[in-house]
Design a protein that fits this description.
The chain is an alpha+beta fold and 255 residues long. The chain has a single domain, classed as Alpha-Beta Complex (Creatine Amidinohydrolase). 27% of the residues lie in helices and 24% in strands. It has 4 helices and 15 strands. The longest helix is centred in the first third of the chain and has 23 residues. It starts with 7 loop residues before the first helix and ends in a 9-residue tail after the last strand. Bound molecules: 2-amino-4-trifluoromethylsulfanyl-butyric acid (MF3) and cobalt (II) ion. 2-amino-4-trifluoromethylsulfanyl-butyric acid binds next to loops.
Length: 255
């Protein structure tokens, strides 16, 4: 599949999708505390997205039944919100969301502590976020996809963590998932060359223990094979000839 170079108009639409997505994350972050359910988070997220007249990217995508992926502790990604899943003090939760604005997607994820969490969990979340920003430094025209992968991989492995291999970042635009794949581990090839106008979701999924993952019986929830914690951090970015632009952000909202 060819990598689509976006027009200025498409980029503007993705910027607006990303702004609304950033606001959505900010709103759901506010309600995270021990005692609330992952269903409550999903409902609030969907409400915010729809309040802008937008559609949640994930709802019904390949049959996914919710708007926000809520993945707790050893759940890596694609956790399904449930009234029965009540957050506890000390949990960490990854929230992955997508917004469609006038036909264009933005995709981003954050991992948050629930109340007071262990130092081990704090360090994992911090390193996962930092690995994204390491990767961001090489996101520019003339570099290759593997430069992004290597930046995440090297940063993470140097700190004793492992990067999930069964799931990867991706191009994003009029479709949630487009070419190219953006792995968080290195391969012995450079991969596609980055060009101005490409829009990609860079999304380190980082485990404390093994990189191996398993799928639960719900066919969605991905968990670590060893039951150890996992964290996720993702933004939709635009490649340019100079510094990359984070499209999934809004003024006044922390990344
Ligand atoms: N951010 C996720 C990804 O890039 C999207 C969730 S998949 C869905 O794969 F099916 F839940 F929508
Ligand atoms: Co994604």
């Amino acid at each position: 599949m060819a990598i689509i170079i976006k027009s200025q108009r498409e980029i503007e639409l993705m910027k607006e999708a990303g702004r609304i997505l950033a606001i959505t994350h900010e709103e759901i972050k506010k309600i995270i505390r021990p005692g609330i359910s992952t269903y409550d988070i999903d409902k609030r997220g969907e409400e915010v997205i729809r309040s802008f007249g937008c559609i949640p990217s994930f709802l019904n995508y390949n049959g996914y039944p919710a708007s926000i992926c809520t993945s707790v502790n050893d759940e890596v990604v694609h956790g399904i919100p449930s009234k029965k899943r009540i957050l506890q003090e000390g949990d960490i939760i990854s929230l992955d969301a997508g917004v469609i604005y006038k036909g264009y997607h933005s995709d981003s994820a954050r991992t948050y502590p629930v109340g007071e969490v262990s130092e081990k969990a704090e360090k994992l979340m911090k390193a996962t976020k930092e690995s994204f920003f390491e990767a961001l430094k090489v996101c520019r025209e003339g570099n290759y996809v593997n430069d992004i992968s290597k930046a995440v991989f090297d940063y993470i492995t140097a700190r004793g963590y492992s990067a999930v291999r069964d799931l990867v970042g991706h191009g994003v635009g009029a479709n949630l998932h487009e070419a190219p794949e953006v792995p968080n581990f290195t391969r012995n090839r450079k991969g596609p060359k980055l060009k101005a106008g490409m829009t990609i979701a860079v999304e380190p999924m980082i485990n404390i223990g093994t990189y191996e993952v398993e799928w639960l019986d719900d066919d969605w929830t991905v968990v670590t094979a060893d039951g150890e914690l996992s964290a996720h951090y993702e933004n939709t970015i635009l490649i340019t000839e100079g510094d990359p632009v984070i499209l999934s952000q809004a003024e006044g909202i922390e990344l």
